[in-house]
Amino acid sequence: MVRSTIVVRASDALPLAASVDDEQTEQALQEHKQQAKLLFRRLTSNSEPRLSIESGPYTHHYLIADNVVYLTIAEKSYPRKLAFSYLDELSKEFSTSYGPKVETVRKPYAFVGFDTFMSKTARLYQDTRAAGAGSNLDRLNDDLQDVTRIMTKNMEELLWRGDSLDRMSHLSSSLRSESEKYRKAARNINFSAMLRQYAPLGAILFIIIILIWWRFT
Q1: Buried-state track 2-16, b at ≥16 Cβ within 10 A, e below 16
Q2: Residue 165 pLDDT > 50, yes or no?
Q3: What is the total count of domains within the chain?
C-alpha cells in the first residue's frame, strides 16, 4: 500500500506538500524519508521523469512534471502501475490547483492543504489484497497505464553512485586548480632559468654598449 507521499519543487528540492503520517509510519519510514531527501537533491534536468527505486521492504516511486516531483513510498509488493496512476492523479490535481504558484513560493509546505486530496486519493489506491472483487480498484486496474518501460533501480547503488560522482567532480576541480598552480610555477621557474642563463651575457653586452657610447661621445 501507499505509505507516505511528498511533493517538492524539482529545481531546488523545496517541499511543497506532504501527507500527514502517523507516529508509527514516521518511525518506520524515517530512514526512507531521509533517502528521499537525498534523492531530491540529486535530481537534475537529465534525470528519468519516472523511476522506481527499491530500498529494503519499500519502493520509492516518483514522477516529475512541470518542475514538480511527486514521490510516494510504498511497500515493495505494491503494484507499480497503481503507484504511478496514483502519482498521475496527484500531478493533475496539483497542477490545476497550484501550478502557476509553484515558481513563486519561498516557504516550505506552502500548499499544505493538498494533503486532503492526497489522503482521499490514497484511500482509493489501497493494496489490491484488501480490495474485494468488483471494487473500484479492480476496475481501475484494467485501465491503468503500462509501466513496463519505467526503470527500476536500487537506492543504495543510486545514492552511492551519486556520492561517487560528487567526489569525482570535487577531485576534478581540485586537479584543475593544482594543475593551474603547477603551470604558473613552471613558468616562473623557466623565466628564472632564462635570467640565470642570459643575464651574464646581457650584462657584458650592456657594458660594451656603454663603452662604445662613451668612446665616441
Answers
A1: bbbbbbbbbeebbbb
A2: no
A3: 1
Predicted local distance difference test score (pLDDT) of residue 138: 52
All three cell numbers of 12, joined, read 531546488
- Rounded to 5 degrees, what angle do the CA atoms 18, 22, 23 make? 120
Q: Which spans in 59-154 are helix H?
A: 80-98, 115-124, 136-143
pLDDT at 36 exceeding the cut of 80: yes
Place of cell 530500498: 55
Q: Which domain holds residue 120?
A: 2-149
- The enclosing H or E element of 217 equals none
- Any idea what the CATH number is for the domain that residue 52 is in? 3.30.450.50
Measured distance CA(56)–CA(37) in Å, rounded: 17
pTM (2 d.p.): 0.68
Please tell me the predicted confidence (pLDDT) of residue 14.
95
CA distances from 208 to 77, 95, 138, 198, 204 (A): 94, 86, 105, 15, 6
